[in-house]
Design a protein that fits this description.
Largest sheet of chain B: 7 strands, mixed
Order of helices and strands of chain B: EEEEEEEEEEE
Helix content of chain A: under 10%
Oligomer: heterodimer
Strand content of chain B: over 45%
Number of helices of chain A: 0
Distance between the termini of chain A: 41 Å
Number of strands of chain A: 11
Largest interface: A-B, 25 and 23 residues
Helix content of chain B: under 10%
Chain lengths: 110, 113
Amino acid sequence: GENVEQHPSTLSVQEGDSAVIKCTYSDSASNYFPWYKQELGKRPQLIIDIRSNVGEKKDQRIAVTLNKTAKHFSLHITETQPEDSAVYFCAASAGNKLTFGGGTRVLVKP
Amino acid sequence: EAQVTQNPRYLITVTGKKLTVTCSQNMNHEYMSWYRQDPGLGLRQIYYSMNVEVTDKGDVPEGYKVSRKEKRNFPLILESPSPNQTSLYFCASSSLPLRETQYFGPGTRLLVL
């Protein structure tokens, strides 16, 4: 089955700097790659996703890139703010199952 | 308001005592799923359902059962809970195909003694 690895597990950045989280997946049939943000004590919420026919997608300060050949995708957050502090999960889907990475705890220091 | 609800939100039980966690959605979604969240392991899929009476195993189905008798409900059943099932459980739903937003419930924190 699909295996998704996510790095780093923790990331500390200064407010205003950029944050990058990387994920790799194993199943070449995966064609949908969402990113979820989970604030402390809350449920995961979708922040951005990308489909396999697109190499990059951007939404304000958040962008995701996909390299299908290398089977990796990344989340980029620019101009980080304290409210970006949370746990971020990448995921990959190759049909009816969604496999998540282990999560990255991001701390934005004021 | 479109939402996914779970009950109970918190549960403490003892080994071997059967329990059910309910999940309900009001968005007419075909797809529903259960995940467990453990530190460092992310969210792992337990079971999912594509529609009424259609269920399938996720990555960690051992020790769990599900049913989908109605489109809006997808209960998670632990017939004989064990301490290694202590975890945070999330139900989620989405429309099909599975390239749309999954909406998560608020979570159920389970402690098995």
